[in-house]
Amino acid sequence: MTRRLAFLALFLGLPGVTWAQAPLPLAEAITRAQAANPDARAAEVAERSAAARLTQARAGYLPSVDVTESWQRGNQPVFVFSSLLSQRQFAASDFAIDALNHPEAVNNLRVGVTIDQAVFDASTRAGVRVATLGRDLATTSRAVVAQDLALAVTGAYGAVLAADAAGRAAAATLETAAADLELARNRRDAGRVTDADVLRIEVFLARAREQQIRSTADATIARARLNQLIGAPLDEAFTLDDTPAAEAMAATDLPALEAEAVSTRADLKLSALQEQLAAAAVDAARANFLPRVYAQGGYEANGGTWGSRASSWMAGAVARVNVFRGFADQARVAEARHMQSLRAIEREKAETAARLDVRIAVARLEAARAAESVGRAAVTQARESHRIVRDRYDGGLADVAALLAAAEAVQQADARHAAARVDVTVAAATLSRALGKR
């Protein structure tokens, strides 16, 4: 009873053990990461920024309106002549040579409104297409970040479970080793074994304590990593689901899985959008060779005082054609076409990589499922073997080396089985990521 109370006190004193922890299922951890992780928030901001750029590009279809208000005073001859005309105050006396050369200073208060409207501008249309694709790229990039975070959280979640399982296995080994030590001491006191048996078990007990300490440290690090991914304080404690259900999916029809990955993966959509963006850049470069036509209109009112002004208006159109710019526009078109070819190559490379990802994920999932099945049977066998060896040691039919080997086999089998269960979950998440499902 004393030993059990001491073990309980040791357990209660372990760092990182917190009561009333908030539960955190794997699905909730993924959702939190996709909402609060800095990468997810940055992707959201980038998407909003791309939407703002699209609004800027579409502004080229709308008229631009400018309103100006100005005041000027002077006796510069041309200024006085034009101001009097604009104010409709020019008189016959103003034609006098002396008045033209040495006019008196006048005021001119002018309010003007100018309107420019693009009638034909291929560069605006190309810019809108580029901005639209840029917004779609940002949206798809956000989906890629979400999928990557889902896989990263699953791995971190599994690392915590594996470290906790290793710690529990070490604690169980400590309890078993303590019982074996008591048995060895009783047999030594009865003269059936020597102090060597007791010392070997004590050494084994020390190694088990060391393993428990390392497992506790691994769990602390893994939990901090998980908290960082989900955007929680690094020292916040959660209760994790130690039996996360691996996603059940058929992993036998490789061609169908590869086709699904090619059609649904966000990163492949990203590659396709980048190729389309390169094609839009070609159109934007070609637009420099097309004419640009603008309609213009203006209204103004001029006067010598605020209360007396004469109004006037003007309307017109402007056409501008690019004739020659030192072959710079031709070079831009060539550059855009080369970039389009590069993006096409990158898209083909990404599709091949996606197919490879699916094959690797399927192989690892099948291996993890097989290892989990083998590990489950190994745990049962190791525990039964330890029980038999312990009974034989108690009866003097086995030595302490066999007893310690059996105890260590139980610990290793428990740890491998826990790791295999986590591997199944991570492998299923990896396959889901390869298929573009998360």
Chain-wise SSE layout:
Elements: H1 2-12, E1 22-24, H2 26-36, H3 38-58, E2 64-74, H4 77-86, H5 97-101, E3 106-120, H6 122-189, H7 195-230, E4 238-240, H8 254-264, H9 266-286, E5 292-303, E6 310-320, H10 328-394, H11 400-434
Parallel strand pairs: 1-4
Antiparallel strand pairs: 2-3, 3-5, 5-6
Helix pairs in contact: 2-3, 2-6, 3-6, 6-7, 6-9, 6-11, 8-10, 9-10, 10-11
What does this structure look like?
The chain is 68% helix and 13% strand. With 438 residues, it is α+β, with helices and mostly antiparallel strands. The strands form 2 sheets. The protein has a 4-stranded antiparallel beta sheet. Helix 6 (122-189) packs antiparallel against helix 7 (195-230), helix 6 packs antiparallel against helix 9 and helix 9 packs antiparallel against helix 10 (328-394). Residues 1-19 have low confidence and may be disordered.
